[in-house]
């Protein structure tokens, strides 16, 4: 099976204690079957025997520390990577050397999909904090997928999600600045809620400057908008700790209906 796709999007980190935190990692040799983020990773629908075969090809290296690179643009694509703990960002460099963040990647997301068409990485991936990553040798994955229809289906599902995330990012950056940041916070909220945690209170794993870069705004604009949201009673911000106080009005600000982003009780 030959794999082709693009990558992007936002995913979200959760600790083993049930709270979103920075820099906590699970045991290096934990299996796919035991992994706490399996429900958000590509082996989601594999049977036990299939999981065991997949586990046999996965490599689990030492933790990545903050600032360490998982891969760089131009390097040969020999492995795909699945984040198990921590947060990474991916970015491109312009011809002037300017960074453009393309995604924030947390447990359950695969990295490297954007290089499948060229057999080389198109972006840079760097740890924002201590991270654990599973490496999946591409040649062995293709061989295994050739004899395992369910694995092929799972890979296609992940590729489809990555393409959809790219489209959502493009749509997001076309919104006015005030809507753009509100939609970003609501997306974070929705991702946390999907994992069974609070939709209202969470910790940002990325800096305001990185949020601004990702959204195509200035850091001053992000700070000004957060202050405006606070003054309106929409949010409370303390460092990277976020409390969304009025989800309904945030949705209205983005032009969203209640059914599109459901508030937890």
Tell me what the structure shows.
The chain is an alpha+beta fold and 265 residues long. The protein has 2 domains: 35-172, Jelly Rolls, CATH 2.60.120.10; 176-254, Arc Repressor Mutant, subunit A, CATH 1.10.10.10. Helices cover 33% and strands 19% of the residues. It is built from 7 helices and 12 strands. A 5-stranded mixed sheet has the order 1-6-5-8-3. The protein has a 4-stranded antiparallel sheet with strand order 2-9-4-7. A 3-stranded antiparallel sheet has the order 10-12-11. Helix 4 (177-194) packs across helix 7 and helix 5 (208-215) packs across helix 6 (219-231). It is globular, with a radius of gyration of 18 Å. The protein starts with 8 loop residues before the first strand and ends in an 11-residue tail after the last helix. The relative contact order is 0.17. Mean pLDDT is 83; it is low at 1-27 and 258-265. InterPro entries: cNMP-bd_dom, cNMP-bd_dom_sf, Env_Response_Regulators, HTH_CRP, RmlC-like_jellyroll, WH-like_DNA-bd_sf, WH_DNA-bd_sf. It comes from Pseudomonas oryzae. Keywords: DNA-binding, Transcription, Transcription regulation.
Gap between N and C termini: 44 Å
Strand order, largest beta sheet: 1-6-5-8-3
> What is the class of the largest domain in the CATH system?
Mainly Beta
Can you identify the CATH superfamily of the largest domain? Jelly Rolls
- The overall average pLDDT, rounded, is 83
Annotation, overall tally of beta strands: 12
Q: Describe the sheet with the most strands.
A: 5 strands, mixed
Structural class by helix and strand composition: alpha+beta
How many separate domains make up the residues?
Answer: 2
Helix content: 25-40%
Strand content: 15-25%
- Treating each run of at least 4 consecutive H or I residues as one helix, how many helices? 7
CATH architecture assignment of the largest domain: Sandwich
Q: What is Rg?
A: 18 Å
- From N to C, what is the helix and strand string? EHEEEEEEEEHHHEHHEEH
CATH fold-level label of the largest domain: Jelly Rolls
GO molecular function: DNA binding; DNA-binding transcription factor activity
Domain HTH crp-type: 175-248
Organism: Pseudomonas oryzae
Protein name: CRP/FNR family transcriptional regulator, anaerobic regulatory protein
């Amino acid at each position: 099976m030959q794999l082709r796709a693009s990558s992007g999007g936002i995913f979200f980190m959760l600790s083993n204690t049930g709270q979103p935190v920075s820099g906590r990692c699970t045991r290096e040799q934990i299996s796919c079957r035991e992994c706490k983020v399996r429900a958000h990773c590509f082996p989601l629908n594999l049977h036990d025997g299939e999981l065991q075969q997949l586990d046999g090809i996965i490599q689990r290296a030492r933790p990545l520390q903050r600032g360490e690179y998982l891969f760089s643009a131009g390097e040969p694509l020999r492995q795909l990577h699945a984040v198990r703990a921590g947060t990474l960002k991916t970015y491109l460099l312009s011809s002037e050397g300017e960074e453009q963040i393309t995604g924030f990647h947390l447990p359950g997301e695969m990295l490297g999909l954007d290089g499948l068409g060229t057999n080389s990485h198109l972006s840079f991936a760097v740890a924002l904090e201590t991270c654990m990553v599973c490496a999946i040798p591409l040649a062995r994955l293709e061989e295994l997928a050739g004899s395992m229809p369910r694995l092929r289906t799972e890979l296609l599902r992940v590729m489809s999600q990555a393409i959809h995330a790219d489209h959502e990012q493009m749509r997001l950056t076309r919104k006015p600045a005030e809507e753009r940041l509100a939609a970003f916070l609501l997306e974070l909220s929705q991702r946390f809620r999907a994992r069974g945690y609070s939709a209202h209170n969470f910790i940002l794993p990325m800096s305001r400057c990185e949020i601004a870069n990702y959204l195509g705004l200035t850091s001053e604009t992000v700070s000004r908008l957060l202050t405006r949201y606070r003054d309106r009673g929409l949010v409370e911000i303390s460092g990277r700790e976020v409390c969304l106080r009025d989800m309904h009005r945030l949705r209205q600000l983005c032009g969203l209906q209640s059914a599109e982003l459901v508030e937890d009780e």
